[in-house]
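Forwarding the complex inputs:
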Amino acid sequence: MKGASRSVECWTWSRRALARHETALLLVLAVEFIAFNALGPRFGTTDNLFDILRHSCEIGLLALVMTPVILTGGIDLSVGSLLGLCAIGFGKLWRDVGLPIPLAAAGALAIGAAGGALNGWLITRLRLPPLIVTLGTFSLFRGLAEAITRGVDTFTNFPASFLFWGQERWLGVPAQLPLFVVVALGIWLLVHATRVGRSLRAMGFSPEGALYAGIPVARRLALVYVLAGLMAGLAAILYVARLGQARADAGTGYELFAITAVVLGGTSIFGGRGTVHGTLLGTAAIAVLNNGLVHARQPRELAGLLTGLLLIVALSLSVLPERFSLWRKALRRRHNPADTAP
Amino acid sequence: MKAAHSLHLLLGVVLLAGCQRSAEPPSQADAPRKITIALLPKSKGNAYFVSCKKGADRAARELGVELLFDGPTDPDPAKQNEIIENWITLGVDAIAAACENKEGISTALRKARARGIRVITYDADALPEAREFFVNQATPEGIGNALMDEAARLCGGEGEFAIITASLTAANMIEWQRCIEARRATRHPNMRMVALRPCDDLKDRAQAEATALLSAYPNLKLIMAICSPAVPGAAEAVKQAGKAGRVRVIGLGLPSENRRYVKEGVTDTVILWKTEDLGYLTVHAAHALVTGRLKAGDKTFRAGALGEFEIQGDNIVLGEPFAFTKDNIDQYDF
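Prediction (whole assembly, two chains):
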């Protein structure tokens, strides 16, 4: 009984810590908005807000799906490379095989899911650590994309009806936004409102415990990696639609942007703790920073530096009150040692 | 928990208010606005483009325009597009782009043109309909003629030479070789090309190829390296073989990468255009386009201190390539 009550306590503590973290992030975001709005006259315009949304859409999708992956205590370094492979696959199916766009898109999603399934299979069947497996497929997928195109072939001249989804507005907002909202909602529900989501967190807290509690750990793990692959496929399609070209270097480095957004959003890299809305806030904080610097006429290189700073500040803001009360207790103890008597 | 909730709400309201305020169109009242020209390099840290920027800065000072210089620092191909889209929202007057990936960037450039922003390209062109002018740093004929003439001059008009290229399939390399051959056939018929070797744009491959050439062709008088890593590569091979001065090295490359060999007397001449002038001319052209001084169909264009430039179709031609030698190479730091 005692153990159970402690674990409940632990739960409420971590929930509160997360809420604090999200508040801190929201604060950071508010500061960014106010500062950039003051520095750049065009920053707050609808046009610019839509720019931010469009530019962060693909990384946002990857960050969304990276959240459940990291919640299980895993990681997926291959999503950026898989995005590249799916983009090439999409271009190849459309231009060389001659499939219509919707079928080529379905093909890209299938390639993504297959890549994710390969990750999942290696992790669950061969019991290799996700870091190692996805480090391998990180090179494998990118290498495959480069081999298929020999590094030089570029797919382009896509029909305007397809480019619409990356460049135009639909219902008054960037065309990819409704899709993004639907995906975000789906992932949120999966993580926060289903038994599957609960089991993912349980696996992150304690893999053995989850196994003994009767959770089909292997199946759940495979699910999150397939989902990650599928999302890389979707992001690839939106990427190609936005840029109007598919090349083997599509999505280079996106895995790290996604992981940064997730960690900034308060998800513990050790798994078990984190929220999808935190990830969205993390993505937004980075995206606004990147865009706002241009409007404030500051060098873009500052973005990397400030993102790092942001990460450290946000993380320490969320643990500071806890630390602070511990210090106070320690101080009080030192002044009247009688307190420590059992 | 409750406190946290209300804080969330409050912050949300602040955010919304922040956006609302400036969602109104920007006021047009702010009197004679400075013209803003945005210059996009292929990558920001590249010494070549840093040197372009130097010239661009000089032009911007002369013309009294604001110059934005921004480009990718990492190899993400989407970055150039994002930077251009940011500039569109920022409302710049003109964009001058050096294009890393032709098709991808053309989408963004077309969008800029649709919003009334004047667009030109420099160094590497976009699709023709995505821009109004291309500031062309050197025509293939200009490069081919300069290299072949210099080779013939150094060899006294006759003898064997070999070419080291990046790859046998790269379009610009093939074009340059064609022009070199054309010049050889018409002007220097006693020069004989004995070998053409690819080096995959790698310095160590170029060095290995040059070493092989030196032993395979004992009568070789000159090595011509037509991709930039190959020039120091070939020079290193000649130096190590102890044939400096007997086998000459010339090529197309950056002065900074070759300064050492040029001063040691291993490499005789490095051919390139003056990158500072490229940046200078580009900013002048963009400015003239905004003010209406430069229009489609013009045959010449005057750019400040540099004077008159020829326009071929929609290409503003920078002119003849420049030869960097022992005597002048110290004046250039790119």
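The CA atoms of residues 35 and 292 of chain A lie 9 Å apart.
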